[in-house]
Design brief:
This is Phosphonate ABC transporter ATP-binding protein. It contains nine helices and ten strands. The chain has about 290 residues and is α/β, with parallel strands linked by helices. The chain has one domain: P-loop containing nucleotide triphosphate hydrolases (Rossmann fold, 3-Layer(aba) Sandwich). Helix 4 packs across helix 5 and helix 5 packs parallel to helix 6. It is globular and about 55 Å long. Bound molecules: adenosine-5'-triphosphate. Adenosine-5'-triphosphate binds next to strand 2 and helix 1.
């Protein structure tokens, strides 16, 4: 590559998010994502991954701080501009969010609804060109032969691939994936992550994906941003990063035995009790490269 560095496609600065007076979901979060990067948000349940993702398409707004996506100041956007931004940012979810009684093809077509005026009922209410595009995306995710089956007849992994095809109908520039494999078996998880990775590479798509398994994060992310209790504890490229390094960082910032156990089971799929030691307070963890 030559020339000046591209400007970030996502820039989150000093974001704090409170829900009511008792829950601080995010605390002073900074996140910069370059075009084409695949960034994994890693963390235990409740660490703020979904909340951070939802700030990136204006499903949540910060209590403090700034969120810029595709050059837009997201919290400042009015309804129409926000809708336009969401059209450029696709999203997939842990529970797929398909309409179970509709065919796979109709589900994919709903991804184009934001570009169409008026309601659409049934396959034939969509323009032929969109039906062809939807079939192309289904082919891409390996499910062309399932186009006319009901969505609820598919396995979880297949349903997530349909959800990816639906997101592709938007021709998104960014894909947000909120725990996309949390409901899937290991084989389907690998398949879905591989697909996301391939699409990102082929289309130059920027991906921000929340996961709680370190192995998957290392295998499929260019970069890991580790969250803990709403704060960033790790932000580094996966090049040369090992699972034990990630676990060591999380172990170092943990403040209780219960948290150490959760780290071992949730992040690493280890079912044995972790060694109990006096974990240091967060404030005493020295700053290192890539460790916030
Ligand atoms: N709409 C909401 N109202 C109140 N509290 C919320 C809301 N959304 C999230 N929270 C709280 O914010 C914190 C972060 O939640 P979030 O869902 O972002 O975490 P997460 O890392 O995505 O967890 P999981 O992996 O379980 O989805 C949690 O304490 C959660 O209960």
């Amino acid at each position: 590559m030559s020339g000046a560095a591209a400007s970030p496609i996502i820039s989150v600065s000093g974001v704090t998010k409170d829900f009511g007076s008792s829950t601080r979901a995010l605390h002073d979060v900074d996140l910069t994502v370059e075009p084409g990067e695949v960034v994994v948000l890693l963390g235990l349940s409740g660490s703020g991954k979904s909340t951070l993702l939802r700030h990136l398409n204006g499903l949540e707004f910060p209590t403090r701080g700034t969120v810029e996506v595709l050059g837009q100041n997201v919290p400042k956007l009015r309804t129409k501009a926000l809708r336009a931004l969401r059209g450029r940012v696709g999203m997939i979810f842990q529970q797929f969010e398909l309409v179970p009684s509709l065919t796979v093809l109709e589900n994919v077509l709903t991804g184009a609804l934001s570009r169409l005026s008026g309601p659409r009922i049934g396959l034939w209410s969509y323009p032929k060109s969109l039906r062809l595009t939807a079939l192309t995306h289904l082919d891409r995710v390996g499910l062309l032969e399932k186009a006319y089956q009901r969505a609820d007849q598919l396995s979880g992994g297949q349903q997530q691939r349909v959800a990816i095809a639906r997101a592709l109908m938007q021709s998104p520039e960014i894909l947000l994936a909120d725990e996309p494999v949390a409901s899937l078996d290991p084989e389907s998880s690998e398949q879905v992550m591989r697909l996301i990775r391939e699409i990102a590479a082929d289309d130059g798509l920027t991906v921000v994906c929340s996961l709680h398994q370190v192995d998957l994060a290392l295998d499929w992310g260019d970069r890991i941003v580790g969250l803990r209790q709403g704060g960033v504890v790790l932000d580094t490229t996966t090049d040369g990063l090992s699972k034990s390094q990630v676990m060591e960082i999380y172990g170092r910032v943990a403040t209780s035995t219960a948290e150490l156990k959760a780290i071992a089971t949730e992040l690493s799929d280890v079912t044995v009790d972790p060694p109990v030691h006096d974990a240091p307070a967060i404030s005493s963890v020295p700053a290192q490269d890539g460790i916030a």
